[in-house]
Amino acid sequence: MKLNIAVLAGDGIGPEISKVGVEVMAAVCRKFGHDVEFVPALVGAAAIDATGNPFPEETFRICSEADAVLFSAVGDLRFDNNPDAKVRPEQGLLAMRKQLGLYANIRPVETFDCLIHKSPLRTEIVEGADFVCIRELTGGMYFGEKFEGADHAFDTCAYTRTEVERILRVAYAYACRRRRHLTVVDKANVLASSRLWRKVAKEMAVEYPDVETDFMYVDNAAMRMIQEPTFFDVMVTENTFGDILTDEGSVITGSMGLLPSASTGDSTPVFEPIHGSWPQAAGKNIANPLAQILSVAMLFDHFNLTDEAKAVRNAVNASLDNNVRTPDIQVDGGEPYGTREVGAWIADYILRH
Ligand code: IPM
Ligand code: MG
Fold first, then answer.
1. Helix (H) / strand (E) containing 30
2. Residues 6 or more apart whose Cβ sits within 8 Å of residue 301
3. What is the per-residue pLDDT for 112?
4. How far apart are CA 231 and CA 201, in angstroms?
5. Confidence of residue 118 (pLDDT cuts 50, 70, 90)
6. Is 345 exposed, middle or buried (0-12, 13-18, 19+ CB in 10 A)?
7. Count of H-run helices and E-run strands, the chain
8. From residue 112, how far is each of 274, 295, 312, 331 by CA, in Å?
9. Which of 223, 232, 250, 331 is 20 to 30 A from 244, alpha carbon to alpha carbon?
10. pLDDT of residue 50
11. What is the C-alpha separation between 23 and 346, in angstroms, rounded?
C-alpha cells in the first residue's frame, strides 16, 4: 500500500515523540513492504512563531492531501501564562479538527497488566477495565457562540440533531464490534443540549436492539469510572464532557503516556496521543513515546492493516516486558530508558520479529 502521512510534531515533547512515531511507522512499512512518505507540517506554537497562524493554510493543504495525519502535541508555557494572548497554540488543534471535519474522537482506555500498580486505583478495581470513549469533537462549547468582555463572558453548548446522530452512529458501530453496551453520557437533568442528545439516542436505540443502551449523567459517570471502570464498554459524549472524562480515563490505567487516540470524520483522519505537550520535559529525552507509537497502531487499524497494527502492539508489549521503559513507568531499581532509546528498541524489535 502507498501511504502519504502528514507529520504534525507541534510543541514541547511533540517533536521528540513524533520522531519516534515516524521511525516506528517506517520500520513497520519496511517490514510489510508498504511505500510510505512522510510530509512534515507546522502546527501550534511552532507555527505561530513561524507564520503567526497556529494552523497555517499550507498545513491544512498538506493534511487534506494526506491519507492520514500523525499528530503529536501543541501547547506552550508562553501562552498558558498569558490570558491576553490573541492567538494560542491550542487553536491550531481546534482549527485542524474543524477544517478536516473530525467529529469523532476515539479514545480507548485499556490497562496494561504490568502497569496496573501505577494506577491510583486499587488493582482489583481497575483490573480488566477496557472501554472506549467516543468524544464528539467539532461541536459543543468549544465551537459554540462565544463572547469575551471585561466583566462578562460566555461559551455556548449547541448541538444539532445531525451532529448528535452522526456521532451516535459511530458509537453504535463500536458497540456492535465490542461487548454491545453503549453508555450515553450527558447532563439531561440540567442542559437543553443534553436533552436533545438523549432524545436522539432513545430514538436510535430501537435500531440497535442487540446493543444495551444506557444513560448516565456526566457527574455520575465521572464517579462510576473510578468506582467500577469495568462497567463501561463504549461511552459516547459531547465535546467538553469527553475532554474531561478521557483525562480521568487515562490516569486510571496507570500512565497518561500510554493512551493513543484517533479522530475521524469527513476527511483525513488524525492519530495522536491523548497527552499534551509537557513543555517542562521538552528536549530532555524523557517523554514516554508509547502513546504516540500506539497511535501508529490505530492508524494501521484504520486502513485495515491488522497485522501491521499487531506488530506495533506486540513490540510495545515486548518493550514493557523487557523493562525498556521511560522513567514514568520504569520499575523500582530499573534503569530508565530515554524517549529515543525506547523508540529505537521498538523499531528494531519490529524489524526482527
Ligand atoms: C485534548 C486536549 C485539547 C482539548 C486541548 C489541547 C485543546 O485537552 O485533546 O483532550 O481540549 O480538546
Ligand atoms: Mg483534553
1. helix 14-32
2. 309
3. 86
4. 20
5. confident
6. middle
7. 13, 12
8. 16, 16, 15, 14
9. 331
10. 96
11. 9
In testing the pocket of ligand 1, which one of 90, 238, 244 has its CB within 8 Å of the most ligand atoms? 90
Alpha-carbon gap, residue 4 to 314, rounded angstroms: 24
Nearest to 277 by CA among 10, 3, 65: 10
Closest residue to atom 5 of ligand 1, CA basis = 90
127 alpha carbon, distance to own chain's centre: 22
Q: What is the pLDDT of residues 239-261, one digit of tens each?
A: 999 999 998 998 898 877 788 99
Report helix, strand or coil for 213.
strand
Residue 332 known to be catalytic: no
Total residue count of the chain as it appears in this document: 353
Closest CA to 254 of 224, 217, 288, 284: 288
Give one word for 196, left, alpha or beta, with left for phi > 0 and alpha for psi -120 to 50. alpha
pTM given for the model: 0.94
On whether the CB atoms of residues 250 and 199 are closer than 8 A, the answer is: no
Residues 6+ apart with CB under 8 A from 126: 111, 116, 119, 229, 252, 253, 254
Residue in this structure with the C-alpha cell 529515543, named with its chain if needed:
340
| Residue 247 falls in the annotated catalytic set | yes
pLDDT digits (tens, 9 = 90+) for 302-344: 999 999 999 999 999 999 999 999 999 998 899 999 999 999 9
Query: Could you say which ligand is closest to the alpha carbon of residue 44?
Result: 1
Q: Is the pLDDT of residue 187 over 80?
A: yes
11 has catalytic annotation: no
Say yes or no to pLDDT of 183 above 90: yes
C-alpha cell at 133: 470513549
CB-based burial label for 317 (10 Å; 0-12, 13-18, 19+)? middle
